Amino acid sequence: MPKQRLVVIGNGMAGGKFVEELLARNGGELFDIVVFGEEPYGNYNRILLSSVVAGSRELKDIFLNSVEWYHERGVRLHSGVRVEAIDRSRQVVIAGNGVEEHYDRLVFATGSKPFVPPIEGLGLDGVFVFRTIDDSLRIMDYTKHARKAVVLGGGLLGLEAASGLLNRGLEVHVVELMPHPMAVQLDAPAGRVLQSTLEGMGIRFHLGKSIVKAVGNAAIEAVTLNDGTMESCDMLVISAGIRPNVEIARQAGLTVERAIVVGDDLVCVDDPSICAIGECAQHRGQTYGLVAPGSEQAGVLADRLSEANPQALYKGSHTSTMLKVMGVDLVVLGRKDAADDKDAVLMYTDAQRGIYKKIILRESRLAGAILLGDVATAPRLLRAFRKQEAIRETPAELLFPHKSTEQSDIDAAPEVFEENLKEVVAVIRPERWLRTREKVESLGIFAYSQHRVVGRGRQRGLHFLARRGARSGQGFRYLPKRMASWIVPESQVDKLVEAIIEANRTGQIGDGKIFVLPVSESMKVGEEPSRQLEVTCV
Ligand SMILES: Cc1cc2nc3c(=O)[nH]c(=O)nc-3n(C[C@H](O)[C@H](O)[C@H](O)COP(=O)(O)OP(=O)(O)OC[C@H]3O[C@@H](n4cnc5c(N)ncnc54)[C@H](O)[C@@H]3O)c2cc1C
């Protein structure tokens, strides 16, 4: 039987996953597969862009399938080519470079684009959105010359962008219309705990506000907020939500509401040869802005088209979200609030320690959960949520981990601690922290405590002088630092210190200091209010 032609528009997370799943089911024997991807790369893990911007991951580490990968599997990839239109009467896809491809089956996986609110002056240099590799490269490049950034949007992406910029040594302000960050996923108390945790790290919030104007000559110099106040800045990152890429589908006469409308078979309601998956698809009235639903849809569509399971249906997804900000543990599942009084709600707050937990149960099944600051029960809750298992644990067991999972490394290896203990403390540049932690963990040393401190410096790239009474003269500015401490047996001190130095490349640790102390002695650190790093060593 001659092969049919299958064309996929969009080589992002859903499109890429679909091709993988289809090939895994021998779909290559049924179809000649053609993929168009507007981005000039193979397929990559978009969610890791946050870690790339934060400096904790290299760009090369986020690629999933290279251009060669497609070639080797007989898939024709038009990389860096945008599809401009489809002609449904001829069953042809028309690309920007003049290429036309016939299709028997067509899959839309065009994802979304960032939503940019109408703000005056956005044509200035230093204004960015955050969606693609190219956006991330532009942002990272610009931070080399910037000192202060404003992020518009305090949602998940905005906070990840803010944290990344902070790690790159910038002063960061987040402007958010809602009264607390991550308002879509978090209730007000959780939002306040998160806000105070992030403020403790150095992010400044302007809540209940929006930006009306970007001000500057060639490059941005400030933003004007809707209350008339101005905030100076060298760069603005807009992260104010997303809009599905549906123009081509709409122009082709497909039914589009918020996104391309599909049934449980993921087929467009008005054309049996066209399907849609990922963020550009609207299923049972719902669109998703997360990876997992797109992956589930990719699996179902691959089952159907490869005929591995032609009856497979997609029934919707139970979504969960994780904030990828260093030093903040946050997992959110399902709903943030009770729907009615049939829902049972369990809550625990320890704002001092940045902990907030809320669990919503409906007929013994998990309908939602917020775990902030302590996510020890997250794996169990995630499994129960995804499978919609009946919950048998008591409320206390749900809110607090079982003893065995709670045990620290110290409990687990008491014999190690018959030696004298030492505390090793280092002040580390934020962008070096993850590398340092990984290096130390490779020695089998896992337990640490860390918090952010603020130091003074002349300029980024030079080691700053941290000393009591340093003056904020011209050229000095406040730099975020991370102070980490490990408590280890004396015999491990040398290799731990070596690992810290190695991970920090220059041999200088933040302000160039590592302290090895008997555990009874302490360091006192002036935090943000004093705007000064004070180190008192006995
Ligand atoms: C920085 C960042 C962090 C994120 N973190 C998380 C997270 O922690 N968890 C989570 O679940 N989700 C996260 N997301 C969201 C997640 O990345 C998306 O939900 C996911 O990528 C959607 O997959 P998709 O294939 O539908 O869209 P995309 O991955 O955007 O892929 C669509 C692709 O189609 C291409 N395209 C569009 N139109 C055309 C055309 N006309 N012709 C050719 N190609 C076209 C686009 O260029 C793009 O490459 C994050 C997103 C970002 C940007």
What this model shows, in words?
The protein is an alpha/beta fold. The chain has four domains: 4-112 and 243-306, 3-Layer(bba) Sandwich (FAD/NAD(P)-binding domain); 127-240, FAD/NAD(P)-binding domain, CATH 3.50.50.60; 318-416, Enolase-like, domain 1; 418-538, Alpha-Beta Plaits (2-Layer Sandwich). Helix content is 24%, strand content 30%. It is built from 14 helices and 32 strands. The strands form nine sheets. Strands 5-2-1-9-22-21 form a six-stranded mixed β-sheet. Strand 27 (355-362) and strand 28 form a beta hairpin. Helix 1 (13-24) runs parallel beside helix 8. Residues 403-418, 458-475 and 520-538 have low confidence and may be disordered. It binds flavin-adenine dinucleotide.
What is this structure's SSE topology?
Elements: E1 4-9, H1 13-24, E2 31-37, E3 43-44, H2 49-54, E4 63-65, H3 67-72, E5 76-79, E6 83-87, E7 92-95, E8 100-102, E9 105-108, E10 112-114, E11 127-129, H4 133-143, E12 148-152, H5 156-167, E13 171-176, H6 188-201, E14 204-207, E15 211-216, E16 220-225, E17 230-232, E18 235-238, E19 242-244, H7 247-251, E20 260-262, E21 267-268, E22 271-276, E23 281-283, H8 291-305, E24 320-322, E25 330-334, E26 343-350, E27 355-362, E28 365-372, H9 378-387, H10 395-399, H11 403-406, H12 409-412, E29 421-428, H13 430-441, E30 449-457, E31 477-489, H14 493-503, E32 514-518
Parallel strand pairs: 1-2, 1-9, 2-5, 9-22, 11-18, 12-13, 12-18, 13-14, 20-23
Antiparallel strand pairs: 3-4, 6-7, 7-8, 10-19, 15-16, 16-17, 21-22, 24-25, 25-28, 26-27, 27-28, 29-31, 29-32, 30-31
The structure holds flavin-adenine dinucleotide.
Residues 9-15, 36-39, 46-47, 49-50, 82-83, 109-112, 130-131, 157, 160, 245, 248, 278-279, 289-292, 294, 322, 324 line the site of flavin-adenine dinucleotide.
